[in-house]
């Protein structure tokens, strides 16, 4: 009864405890489905509380880490760790990051408030007041399911892997003025691996090579990523050709038929392929600045721009075809729904991400912060008065700020915001315009790490990048 709403296959996957109750482990593959699907508010709340306090011992570790980081930054002449971490990135300073996050959060308030009042209203009808932050995933999912007649199981039928891949190749070749050619008979490490050469369409110059190793198999590295096998550079007037490798874990065949991709996998594949194109089109003279050795605030922007091609009818048709008759592309209604679904009820979730980014930025730019007090204060300030869930300790289980993204959690949103600006300004009205694509290739992809990213983007846009297009895209989130 406590798990009403969860699908039978999920329940079947759970172990049983001695008292015959289901055992839920505090990992996202158990917690997320419960928070999104469980109809029982008290279950969602107790799971959210347990999950939000799962690593309380980490808080003192984090406090120690922060102290040491500040100490190291001071040794290098910086006032605090955030200034050290951001100094050589596109954002330049912690002050700029605060300005960016505050401005973005403020601009999203109107859309987020509309979302919140609809969510509160629905909860009042279904379970009664009050609405808590732990109710967010369940009610967002419920409202979106009600608003959209989108069955992702059906959508998947339109994305056979080979067709998606050839569509992605076509989009990138046509847009950026490139030509890909398979190198047949090349020496590879597994029969599934393919090697392609990349030529400039007009001059015929060999620009680079890429391998694709996209099917899952036993013992293979299990992440999806692009690896730079060789960076481009000039050595005594001879060009060293860049070589990239795209690794993924897709199902090659299911029951003797070509594998089908989930829509999120299609978006992800195009995103990763964007990194391959970026790697090969980067013409920086030194290997240190070419390939994907770029400012981390900048490196994701081109791939995030390309993701938009998955949400426009004309390009979506190039990468889709019904699996039993690939001449039948995905229909216009589904394309439109996917585009609206992408932005629907996204403002409040974004504010939640901004809250974590602000927390990360404050603890890395101030000494001796009361972390629990700070999180409580920020939560209600950023999340439109919604309090932090009582009994949780989110500061202690926020891995991005502990290792890997310390003082730079903002970077993901930063890249999304400026990618939205470029897409809206340059590509939105004509996504297959090769002149714009080649201009982008020359102005944005080619300079690589040899030019300041802000200059690169300003040069291409004809003005400084702005947050407006991103904010506008969330204006109709309800
Ligand atoms: Zn990426």
TrEMBL record:
Pfam families reported for this sequence: Peptidase_M3
CDD domains per record: M3A_TOP (cd06455)
Q: Which parts of the sequence belong to the Peptidase M3A/M3B catalytic domain?
A: 37-474
Coiled-coil annotation reads: none
Organism superkingdom: Eukaryota
User: Keyword annotations for this protein?
Assistant: Hydrolase, Metal-binding, Metalloprotease, Protease, Zinc
| Requisite cofactors | Zn(2+)
Similarity annotation: Belongs to the peptidase M3 family.
Q: What name does the UniProt record give this protein? A: Thimet oligopeptidase
From what organism does this protein derive? Sesamum alatum
